[in-house]
């Protein structure tokens, strides 16, 4: 499974961005996908995740009500709509996929910078 993120960039506080993650390869084996983020000196943290089947979602408390995760299984693409962005949302955002054998796959990351 290969994952490629896009959509990061620089935005002012209160603005919006939409991240995309395109999956290729053995996508039929993917059970769930998610977005993580990481800032220098900190561990990578889960932002949101979505299951492939029922589309169940989970969110970090810090983004609930502002971020929305979604997926288009036909396009093998996952999205993260980020609204009301805050400077503390600044991070490198990574796409993650977990397959039926609990193997983890990661994208290369995309930088999101929110200016105050």
Word description of this protein:
The chain is mostly beta strands. The chain is 0% helix and 57% strand. Strands 2, 4, 5, 6, 9, 10 and 11 form a seven-stranded mixed β-sheet that branches. A four-stranded antiparallel β-sheet has the order 1-3-8-7, with no helix packed on it. A hairpin with a 4-residue loop joins β9 and β10 (104-106).
Q: What are the main properties of this structure?
A:
single chain; mainly beta; about 120 residues; 7-stranded mixed β-sheet; 4-stranded antiparallel β-sheet
Estimate the mean pLDDT confidence: 96
Tell me which oligomeric state these chains represent: single chain
Unreliable parts: none
Euclidean distance between termini CA atoms: 37 Å
Global geometry? globular
Helix content: under 10%
Number of strands: 11
The largest sheet, given as strand count, sense and whether it forms a barrel, is: 7 strands, mixed
Query: How much is the radius of gyration in Å?
Result: 13 Å
Structural class: mainly beta
Percentage of residues in DSSP E strands: over 45%
Order of helices and strands: EEEEEEEEEEE
Number of helices: 0
């Amino acid at each position: 499974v290969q994952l490629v993120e896009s959509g990061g960039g620089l935005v002012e506080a209160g603005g919006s961005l939409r991240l995309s993650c395109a999956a290729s390869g053995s996508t039929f084996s993917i059970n769930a996908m998610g977005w993580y983020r990481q800032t220098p000196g900190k561990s990578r943290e889960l932002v949101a995740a979505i299951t492939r089947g029922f589309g169940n979602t989970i969110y970090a408390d810090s983004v609930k009500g502002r971020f929305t995760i979604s997926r288009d299984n036909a396009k093998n693409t996952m999205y993260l709509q980020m609204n009301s962005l805050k400077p503390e949302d600044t991070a490198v955002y990574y796409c993650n996929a977990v397959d039926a054998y609990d193997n983890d796959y990661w994208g290369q990351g995309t930088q999101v910078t929110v200016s105050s």
